[in-house]
Amino acid sequence: MTAAPTSTGARPVGGRRLVVIFVGLQLGMMLSTLDNTIVATALPTISRELGGISRLSWVITAYLLAQVTSMPLFGKLGDLYGRKRVFLVAVTLFVAGSVACGAAQSIDQLIVFRGLQGLGAGGIGPLAMAIVADIVPARQLGRWLGYQGALFAIASVAGPLVGGVFVDQLSWRWAFYVNIPVAAVGLVIVGTSLHLPYRRIPHSIDYLGSALLVGALSSLVLLVSGGGESWPWLSPMTVGLAVTAVLLGLLFVRRQRCAVEPVLPLRLLANPIVRVINPINFASGMLLLCGVFFIPVFLQEVSGVSAFESGLLLSPLMFGAAIGTLIAGQRVERTGRYRRWPIVGSLLMTLGVAMLATLRETTPVGLAIAFGGVLGLGVGFVMQTTLLAVQNSVEHRELGIATSTALLHRLLGPTVGTPIFGAVLNAGLPDGGPRTAADFAHALPPVFLAAVPVGILSFLVALRLRERPLREHAHFGPDTIDVPVFGVAGPE
Question: Which of 42, 310, 437, 440 has the lowest tally of Cβ within 10 angstroms?
């Protein structure tokens, strides 16, 4: 048996080739980011053409449900079968879903095909980030994750604008068809430029554990997505979903203790870095959602700007996040230390939502978006450095599942936060009659105030983060490309 290539001494992929691979991976990641915001912009037009307005929210929920449940599974499959091939499968699934969505003739078809899209999206992000960690040393990884954060910010801002152009000038179907050429370029780049050793490891896939995990996550997402809207919070449906989520979660943990090849090894969750980072990621996702969703509500309902203008005015928040990731990434590369950034970032996130809680009807628009910029800067300091810390703390064989677990918590943050913050807003609005600017000015500050404890908890947890030396080498580089791994030769 040929030993697996160790990290020691492997020279990182560099120069133009690394840039090309990175661009190919980011094209895939930008698909899911753009798609969510573009589709949200197109939903009113979709409902007019396909009908089914009562089920319109499921166009978003189906995507989210499939993405959340497939994310840890794709991470594990990448660890077992090689990340490049599984990444290509995920992008292909996403494109197939996009084509089907664009051709949908009913709202029910669209919901089903959005699920297929979400299934692919669940693999794109974790696998792309894990591949970058494969070929870039941890010491340099922060800088590349910073570039990635900047692209995410650009895609988030561009999404509503592109969606508006498609809806007004072409058709809502182009909100899905636009993914095809972007994905094609990404597939060609990754397929031809990225060559990593692959493993054919004897293993026993934990089908039962996978089913229990999917069931638990599905119940949780349905609970927080439909509770208070599709059914009352105290209804039998809500109670049933809550009990199911807890029961399946407990059975999943029990299964992982005895599975030969667990889908989510419990030793990973016992890792002190992972144990600290997961709640921080959850909090950062929840607070980012608070800004992205409710700052536009203030701008439109209180300040009276248009939906298009509010999208543009959200740029300081998103570009604040981009700047934060770039600053933190470059400083981590220079100093080799990452611990301070989640701590400072948590403080800034808390300060940002606390300042947003002071918004009043007379607050200038410029001041509101500046507060959002502070929140975004804090999110930028947190998000990519926490991912770096996780990837640096685990063995290479668990890099994929560790990355997907971190991103899963980041995604669950806004999933859980949406109904909570929405309930706080609705509690402050009048039940009947027109809702005026004064009503929203009164109801919005408690929403941001409710987010402050989340930021404080993130700060307290971040104080427990340990500093570990960053790897100076990549897992794979030119010295290990096409080298046989675990007895079986061949590049991916």
Answer: 437
Q: What pTM value is reported for the model? A: 0.80
Place of tokens 């909570």: 420
Range of the domain at 239: 205-260
Of the candidates 268, 263, 267, 266, which has an alpha carbon nearest to the alpha carbon of residue 211?
263
The reply to whether 190 and 231 lie within a common domain is no
Cα Dmax for the chain:
75
88 and 190 Cβ atoms separated by less than 8 Å = yes
Report residue 197: phi and psi, to 5°.
-60, 145
Per-residue pLDDT, 11: 45
Number of Cβ atoms within 10 Å of the Cβ of 203 = 12
Question: Judging by beta carbons within 10 Å of its beta carbon (0-12, 13-18, 19+), is residue 355 exposed, middle or buried?
Answer: middle
Please check the confidence at residue 269 and state whether its pLDDT lies above 50. Answer: yes
Residue 7 in domain: no
pLDDT at residue 480 above 50? no
* 137 CA to centre of own chain: 23
pLDDT above 90: percentage of residues in the chain:
16
With a CB cutoff of 8 Å and minimum separation 6, the contacts of 235 are: none
Same domain for 225 and 90: no
DSSP state of 360: -
Tell me, what DSSP letter sits at residue 201?
A: -
The full DSSP string for 113-163 is: HHHHHHHHHHHHHHHHHHHHHHHS-HHHHHHHHHHHHHHHHHHHHHHHHHH
Residues whose CB is less than 8 angstroms from the CB of residue 326 and which lie 6 or more positions away in sequence, other chains included: 143, 146, 147, 149, 150, 380
Paired residues of 227 in beta bridges: 231
Six-digit token pair at 44?
Answer: 């009113």
Closest CA to 389 of 313, 471, 448: 471
Residues 195 and 225 in one domain: no
The DSSP secondary-structure symbol of 491 reads B
In a 3-state reduction of DSSP, which class is residue 378?
A: helix
